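Each field is set out underneath.
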Amino acid sequence: MKNFAPLSRLLHRAHPPHGPLMLMYHSVSAGATTPAWPWAVSMAQFKSQLDYLSDNGYLTPTMAELMAAPERFAGRKVAVITFDDGYLDNLYACDSLASRGMRASWFIVAGAIGRDPHWPDDGRPDGRMLNATELRAMRAEGMEIGSHTMNHVRLPEVSYDDAKAELIDSRHILEDALGAPISSFAYPFGAWNDTIADATREAGYAAACTTRTGWALRDNDPYRLRRLTVFNTDTLGSFVRKLAYASHAVSWYELVRYHGGMVARRFTG
């Protein structure tokens, strides 16, 4: 039953959105084979997810567009599509988005532009990262380029001065490479705290996103935006349920418990 997409679509229609969503991707591999890396999806998965968003009336603004005028999107279905790190295979994803008239935001590790990643290998894609020419071409297609630090570090675990340098230097390098301002940021590993959020604002960013689940604007704070991770194991059905509940806890078992609890509270409250 985990692949029962029709029921997932019914649940989606029964749960109108409570605000914009943000979706987090990392890597999109060619073909239909499920990648081994949990944070990668196949091109077949990705295209089916984009088609569902398009067919169901979702707007896909960049993160900067959403945060510049969130009132423009009130009452609309909104899914901000984001990519972390900047792997070379993201070019396939960019083509798929552009061909559908959709946009996304990319958070780039500025110290690895055009080079092999230098952070610990946890099964991530092999090969180099996107280079400056490719990033400029993506921006010309309407995609947003944002920062993901210089070195993909956990910002709360380094000194305050080092954290500020990671934030400021990465923005300057990306601005020089693109000839355009950089206003959006994503915390590597989703690691942040109040001090880091304040430092991000002071470094000149207009908004930053985390890996906490929920509706993107739930905290009413531009430096604590929430995102939903799209994993290699996500079927179209589980993807649709994530859209409906703004949560990762969307297995049928978890949803039965959730709705059963709601019913119980209604009769005992």
Q: What stands out?
A: The first strand starts at residue 21 and ends at 25. Strands lie at 21-25, 27-29, 40-42, 79-85, 105-108, 144-147, 184-186, 207-209, 228-229. The CA atoms of residues 185 and 208 lie 5 Å apart.
